[in-house]
Amino acid sequence: MPRDPLIGLVGKPSSGKSTTLNSLTDASSKVGNFPFTTIDPQRAIGYLQIPCACARFPDLSARCKPNYGSCVDGRRSVPIELLDVAGLVPGAHEGKGLGNKFLDDLRHADALVHVVDVSGCTDAEGKATRGYDPSQDIVWLRSEIVNWIQGNLMEKWSSIKRRHVATKSSPVETLQAQFSGYGSTPSLLALTLSRFSSAHALGPLEAWDEATISAVVSAFVDDKFPTVLALNKIDHADADKNIAKIAKGRDPQTMVLTSAISEVFLRRLAKQAYVRYVEGSEVVETREDLLEDGVEDGGGLREMDEKLKTRIENLRDMVLYRFGSTGVVQVLSRAAELLGLVPVFPVRNIHSFGSGSATGGGGKDAVFRDCVLVKKNTTVGEVYRKVMGDAPLAYVETVGAVRVSEDDIVTSGKNDILSFKVGRA
Ligand SMILES: Nc1nc2c(ncn2[C@@H]2O[C@H](COP(=O)(O)OP(=O)(O)O)[C@@H](O)[C@H]2O)c(=O)[nH]1
Ligand SMILES: [Mg+2]
């Protein structure tokens, strides 16, 4: 059965992992008691913003009442699990810091967010300094992961080799036996190995030298752990030159500029009724702004003292107007894009899109109560087993009561609204 996708936050101490996690999980959109809210202190539920299925049908938005998360004007916040992988320092794979403990946590992650302190005010160990070059962190952190996996492999390499030859296994079979603990699949490994062109042919596995093994492990890490860089602390004056250096020659899709502390601050002020803030946007309104716009009683917002007003002004100038937002919400969207996550909307009734029950507080007119996130290339049948377990499946319908096959790959906008009929066909 496919697991729920899990996004791991990595980065050296004091880069801002906990702040980023808090900024993403302390959402006002958190309604209902999500069952996994307190699995352990490192795990939390963030909210991924996606276009909701209700937006495709006129007049349905008002009746869209998610069981978990929220939906505002067709923008839906869907719960997604986050893991704070703390304690990563140079030398971790040899046991420095928390050592292999966090590397073991990593196994469960589908994508990584590497939180980088771009202010240059913390060194590789996370100690306070000035003028540190954060592009180094990107290099060493990745090599820690590669070295960890390679180290585990090299320890057993001679017996792996012997078994490979004796059982006449394919390279994918042999590697899958070694890498399944990191969440590999045969198709992922086939993809990884296909990256080596005939010009850089790998040759038979039993003849691989250490450099070849290293290249294979490195390619596997890229495929298994797609990574978004969250260049954090952009509110700091030293950030600009460091960002420019890191951005050079990188795919911009894998990079987001963030100020996690600003997001935490804005959400707190909104909760205390000092501002109106649309999470993840550049829109912050104070009582004065609203009064100016003719909103009665300033929208009921509270008066701020001069100090607080100045902080808001600075935050607008340094972060929101310069970068368009605090960036943290985009971090999750980017990670979801890298993973190719597809939101699927299981409904009881394919005509009304209702759940057919009045439980859960949404009323019996509520539509699109459920949304599950699945990885790309997931089939309709796999979604069924994830949602309904082992019960026998009679047939599946999508919009217009059109039958869909269990083997169809779910695709956004095509067959992502599904009604499962339990029983014998
Ligand atoms: N200036 C600035 N400081 C931040 C930002 N995010 C986190 N910090 C500060 O960096 C320090 C370490 O943050 P923390 O989240 O505990 O880092 P962790 O060790 O990676 O979990 C704290 O003092 C935070 O207040 C940010 O966006 N801007
Ligand atoms: Mg922390």
TrEMBL record:
It comes from Viridothelium virens. GO terms for molecular function: ATP hydrolysis activity; GTP binding. GO terms for cellular component: cytoplasm. Residues 5-278 form the OBG-type G domain. Keywords: GTP-binding, Nucleotide-binding. This is GTP-binding protein-like protein. It comes from the Eukaryota. The keyword Nucleotide-binding applies. InterPro entries: G_OBG, GTP-bd, P-loop_NTPase, YGR210-like_G4.
